[in-house]
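[job 0417] fold request received: Methyltransferase domain-containing protein
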Amino acid sequence: MLPSLNCIKKEIDNLILILEPLLPLVNSHMVDYFINSRYKTSVPLPLQNDICNIGCDNAIDILLKGTPNPCAFHLNDYINRAKSCQLYNLSMVCLSQSDLHRKFFEWGGGDVESLKLKVFVTEKKSHEIELLTKVVATIYNISKTTHIIDVGCGKGYLSSLLALHHQIPVLGVDSSLLHTDGAIKRARLLEKAWKGFQHNPYKSLPSKTEDNLTKIDHLYKQVTQFVTEDTDFEQLISDIFLQRSTNFGLVGLHTCGDLAAACIKMYNRNNNLKTLCNVSCCYNLLNEEFESVNSKSTHSFGFPLSAHLRNKRFKLGHIALMLSAQPVDRILNRKELPSKILFYRSVLEVILEKYNICKSKRQVGKVKKKCENFVEYVHICLKNINVKLDLSNDELMKVYHEYETYENQLYVFYLLRCMLAPLIEAIILLDRLLFLHENGHANAFLTQLFDPIISPRCYALISLKR
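[job 0417] inference complete; emitting structure tokens
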């Protein structure tokens, strides 16, 4: 059964109730961990008491392994509540794979053959396009659309498979000329090896292809264009395919930031756009309507979309949006702590603060070189920001040793924050789902499409106008 409008509202409100008391933790920067005493000011006191009782090493063990500790009731409860907020555990608003297949069968989708592409692509991309191609082809069969538009098509792997394996006319749209030019070349190479490739997915592709127009040129076409919610897709189809269409679908694999919201808004108001299948990413690039920096902007915002949250003037904040991108399932699966660089950076901030270095000059960026120790890290960072400090290596190490005993506490703080990433992601995606239901799209739903360990942004928002 698909979720109802009231059910989605209720789930969003429940998630916000859980999130609100934890906003100080969510909106804490790791960089200023020491200078702003983030652990003391942002971690709820019951959690601090539990962590004090069992020690930071044991707290890290519980957070990474999920094994309850009888001496840490509040920490156990925190972990359980955080996990319960993951969309794939919210069965009332997020369809399981079996529910998705059942619904597609009910709508007459039939059995669509999948194919795993194992050349040209990483394991992650192979996993994504295998599963998404099958879903998009099924939606295409149900809706009988004439064309699929692949927004943010990138290198064109998804479009190529839809065209070659499922014979679907696809228009790939991307803002990068480099992507669209390269996509058709890869598609032609793929087609040239197609017959052998179908029987041997590991088969290498040929290095050259003929100049004459091939079959895929008629099915898969590209255009370089920046997509906004005002993009005229009907005209694009007419211009590129030389055909008129009043019945087409929209797909996006990892559409970035506001682009996902733009696709949803277009689907809502364009009667000719019959289907939507969107897997989004880069929530940190969303423009929030009620963030103070945007309060007087005329920009079309990416969050919130629903009237329910807009009426509340709800906002998450940029740091929360950054946090939402953390790959929690992967972190827990690998039982991995962050790089020691995270600790180094927090200690460096203490030094920069002590010497009154202007905050605008503290953007050290990513340190690509692997640093052997804290001193080397500091020298690289100071060079990056063109700052000279009258500090010897011994003095730098003295500061480092002063904070070294708090390193594991910082990692506990990091993991506590990471556990909340799926909660923020759930609010963002449920807001989009609610927007569609508020506007009468009762056949809209969320589903977990990918393995979150392989592909952390694993949820698809799907809608069909039936």
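[job 0417] notes: Residues 203-213 have pLDDT under 50 and may be disordered. The chain has one domain: 1-145+247-465.
[job 0417] exit 0
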